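User: Before I run my own analysis I want an independent prediction to cross-check against. Here's the chain; please return only the structure tokens and, at the end, one sentence I can use as a sanity check.
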Amino acid sequence: MELRHLRYLVAVAEELHFGRAAIRLNISQPPLSQQIRQLEEELGVKLFNRTKREVRLTEAGARIVSEAHQVLSQIDHFTRVASQAGEGEIGHLSVGVPGGVNEILVQTLKSLAKHYPGVRIELQYMTTGMQIEALRERHIQVGFLNLPVSESSIAIEVVKSEPLWIAMPKGHPLTRCETVPLKALEVQRVIIFPRRVAPGLHDAITGMCRNAGVNLNAVHETDSVVASLTLVSADLGVAFCTPSVRRLWPDVAFRALQSSVKVEQAVAYRRDSQSPVLGTFLRVLRQVIHKTRGPAIREMS
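Assistant: Structure tokens:
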């Protein structure tokens, strides 16, 4: 028995006319009649009572047609799922993200949920270093991280570039500055992240300070911007950050740094990845970036 036999059976059962069923199936009537007879012989059951005037399902035929409907429905569902999976319309995606809110990621997830509700997202909060390792070991499929990174097996696409700013408690003396000189940080208690969190960015920051002749007084270490700004809001020091986080921390003051390095945020994924759902995610992400990319906005708090 083949699937086409079930489709023939259902067509004849619904039309109760071999001629109309043949037209619907785009075959001639004699082969259709022959196929139904062969099916009856294979099953050992009479499916239809035929006369010159009418065709009627037998009681056994009605039950078998009901089963055939279920089988064909499952086959159609299977085919649809296979197609959606192949096109990246359904599936599971593990995404590594640093602590803090990434507006581009949020907009990407919103668009993904609207247009591809069959894609299930798993967010895992990780430092840049952890994301690189997780990508290498295939524990996540895509990551949002800070550049620079050096890993030949991983593809990088820059999604945002921002200057490095400094965050400080409200009322801090440096809030009187429109831009903060790097030299002014030398006498401040600085909250910084350890090198293992984001080696490239850590080296860029320390190199920037070293080139300016500034020795940082690092009093606290954290592994995320959320942790850093929590300590800032508790008046435990000042911290490096990017301007995009300032809207979420009304009790913290933010200022640009003079001669600041640029902080590039990127999406990263394995070069050898062949995941259709990753392709869908990247396509939506690129559309979001294209719509939202514009001139940088500087605000004072």
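Sanity check: The CA atoms of residues 73 and 79 lie 10 Å apart.
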